[in-house]
Amino acid sequence: MDICAEKCINEKKVRETVETIPQQEDIGQMVDIFKALGDPSRLKIVLALLNQEHCVCDIAVICGQTDSAISHQLRILRTMKIVKNRREGKIIYYSIDDDHVISLIHMSLNHVRH
Amino acid sequence: MDICAEKCINEKKVRETVETIPQQEDIGQMVDIFKALGDPSRLKIVLALLNQEHCVCDIAVICGQTDSAISHQLRILRTMKIVKNRREGKIIYYSIDDDHVISLIHMSLNHVRH
DNA sequence: TCTTCATTTGAACATTTGTTCATATGTTAA
DNA sequence: TTAACATATGAACAAATGTTCAAATGAAGA
Question: Which of B6, B50, B104 should we substitute to test contact with A (largest number of A Cβ atoms within 10 Å)?
Fold first, then answer.
């Protein structure tokens, strides 16, 4: 039951704070979102889709990257349900699928600009 | 001047969206914040400091990691001005230094729990 | 001054991550 | 069916990242 064996400076404060830390699973999910947005390629993709839906090759042009690279990143964003897609013939259109992510980005944009 | 040489599906949409993309520098700063929070160790540290200030070795106990590992991560968070510290004798207390980050975390916690 | 203790630092190492290239899938139009 | 095109996928490679270990710093008390 000892949280701090012998090393701990302030056992009471430690216990208090440990109480407030979210569950490991929640932390993991939060990390996943931040990690998803914490890459220049992916963030730029999401920023582009914030404006309107786009097909893969347009995103590639907007982001100045290979179709393949974009496709790989879109798969990650899709797996995380940050982005969704719809097919129209040969073309697949991607768009944002998560309002919370939109808020996070707006908030961070605000932060950067002040 | 050609944004899309020959590859582009919908040149008009591409131009429209390119207009809306933030400057490279802003994107870089946004990425840095998300990247800082996109690591389990660092996020847990920040979550702990959200509750109250702590010294390095208490954070280590709370997070179940080495003093050294925590110190390395704190340096990153300090460099990014997410966290600040004050010395009291031998002990150095760390605390949150950025309200925007607090908001980001609360928003992502909300996201995870709904 | 010497010792102890909290924290920091640097180098080394293992892991993770993003991009590239070549190839595969699947849809459309001929 | 075949050719052309948009997208997806897998393997390989290079680069970035987090932790560990050992050693250094700097403050307090003996």
Answer: B104
Q: What is the pTM of this model?
A: 0.92
Residue A59's Cβ-count burial label (10 Å; 0-12, 13-18, 19+) is buried
Statement: the CB of B92 is under 7 Å from strand C: yes
Q: Architecture of A11-112 per CATH?
A: Orthogonal Bundle (1.10)
Measured from the CB, is A82 under 7 Å from any atom of strand D? no
How many Å does it take to go from CA B79 to C1' C22?
A: 42
What would the CATH number be for the domain defined by B23-112? 1.10.10.10
**What are the pLDDT digits (tens) for B70-88?**
999 999 999 999 999 999 9
